[in-house]
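User: I'm curious whether this sequence folds into something compact or stays loose and floppy. Could you predict its structure so I can see for myself?
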Amino acid sequence: MRVDVYTPFLLSLLLAGIGPLIGGRVAPALAARVLAGAAVVSAVATTWSLLLLAVTLLDAAPPVVADAREDGLRLPEPVPEVVAFAAWALLLVVAHRLCRAARAEYLTRRALRLLCEGQPSDTELIVADSSAPMAFAIPKSAGSPGRILVTSTMLGALSTEERRVLLAHERAHLTHRHARLCTAVTLAGAANPLLGPVRETVAFLVERWADERAAAVVGDRASAARALARAALTVGCREPSDGLGFTDRAVTRRIAALQTDPLPRLWPLVATVLSLGALTAFGAADATGDLLRLLEPVLT
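Assistant: Here's the prediction. I'll summarize afterward.
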């Protein structure tokens, strides 16, 4: 308990450190899935560890102390009380951050759905008459199919082949449900701020994943790179959109990646990430067992 309960936090730091390394060396489809899964497991494990630390205050409750004295028991002190109080405070912070992140995700999804109001349910592509060059995927939700929204200005700036690349890119976001991965790592990052670098890496990887799928659809990586470059020049400098946009996230790096061969599936690196995720869960589980054994005299 004195050591195991802290291991999820240390392993989260390691995961945050190697996340960008994995993202630059492993095929994006595999890397995004593995990092997102490991991040979710790590976030759950660290939150559970905070709860375990907070629960150690149970032995300081007056009724528990009185019962223990009557039975002649010595209550265990697995962690200092200041650590337990700090854990309670951090749990409140985690709850607040999760609520904020969940609300932001909900409002974003609702705003995107409103853009599609009045459109036929069987229409995938929506062309908006706007002077702002934009293109992004609107994920599927209850009662609403996945859509691709592109402005007339963006379409007008691209050639026929480049339009194929753009639509294939956005369609890949919908087909592979990238919004779910992004939401998962966003909530994981809210629960555990140490995982912030992993959240950013996964957001980049889903764009790289969609780039690779678009290149496969048109059968030419160079064409995909040119389409991305043309779209980026049309958009200019702006912040990433709330949706999954064609020109979001490190366009220069994405263009460079399309000009080289596809990345391999380096299973040793993938195994390392999976091991970190498993170890965080094991550390939290082992700490749970230790705490239950320490509190057994009080609980029985």
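Summary: The longest strand covers residues 147-151. The first helix runs from residue 7 to 25.
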